[in-house]
Amino acid sequence: MDELIKKINSIYPLKPDSLKLLLDEMHKIGLPKNKVLVEAGQIGRSAYFIKQGIARAYCEGKDNQITFWFGLEGDFVFSYNSYINRQPGYESIELLENSILYEIKDEALQRLFLENIDLANWGRKLAELELIKLEERYISRLFKSASECYAELLKNSPNLIQRIQLGYIASYLGVTQVTLSRIRAEIK
Amino acid sequence: MDELIKKINSIYPLKPDSLKLLLDEMHKIGLPKNKVLVEAGQIGRSAYFIKQGIARAYCEGKDNQITFWFGLEGDFVFSYNSYINRQPGYESIELLENSILYEIKDEALQRLFLENIDLANWGRKLAELELIKLEERYISRLFKSASECYAELLKNSPNLIQRIQLGYIASYLGVTQVTLSRIRAEIK
DNA sequence: TTCATTTTTTAACATTTGTAAAAAAATGGC
DNA sequence: GCCATTTTTTTACAAATGTTAAAAAATGAA
To answer: What is the separation, in whole angstroms, between the first and last Cα of chain B?
Structure first.
């Protein structure tokens, strides 16, 4: 539970009382590989913190899936779309490994935000930090070729490439698996 | 001021008292075309609401600029990066037309968030909504060809294409201006 | 209007990426 | 270890996009 507390406070330092309110709503669960945490078309009812494992968010295309996010140890997982809009989302999220998570019901989280200003600001900061992470990723893709994006990934998250199959990574980078193979062949 | 109040309440409905606190900190200003609201490398000290005009956010590349966001009437403008991290940002934001804005000092906004839970939740909701807007844009780009992205832009924001020069729009779509010209030629 | 400047389009060729199919390599259950 | 299945790489060709340069069109100031 220690890494969870560290992560929570790194987003926005909470007073001990506020932290306790939040922790009291979070429950540890183990879930198997391939478990779907959030299903497109359904409302996501929980958010998760990844203690151990990998998650993958994707959308269904005409004849393929588009992977647009990976979550690793220390990340929060939630369907932004359905978490924020309270509407069925377009994205699914599944586990790529047997995982250990802390779950919090969306309902509880929303209630805490309305009751406690410390937690409301924590929730604000969480969204803001996710926003700039996504913006950096968005801009990075406008700037860089697929090859450069792969090199960056290799540098910043080498374990990600070892633990996730390349088809998903290709999709994440916005290229086909054939192109990713070519890129990898060139680098060697 | 009416459209400003409408916009604020559409993000998250505020109690009249909270709304007043926020409005008291916002001041109407007129600024000319080409005015740089936020300069890369500096800390953005204000956020803005666009009453009239257009803004464009961009980064400097090696030998070009990458445009990654446009703001129109009814949008909020702020350098996420420097607004959130309180650090010099990588992005610049400039006006593409003579504009009328409402300005709020970052300092005042941060203070309000810490003092008033209603406004803290408003700020949370603002970040969350920006987050899903960006996510939708991000996913859309993974799915669609440049041609489809342009068609979508033409459908959803036709005035954007009339008011903004095509070089910026090409960059926003992630293609060269030559490619955008070809796409436009095909559609006709 | 006229002229200089900026913006947009077009053309020709090079490079990158996609598609489809097959081969090679890795994985997992028995 | 063996075999079926899945994943990754390779190949050949097609399509899309980039690069450079020039032409055409639009814009704005005198």
So the answer is: 40
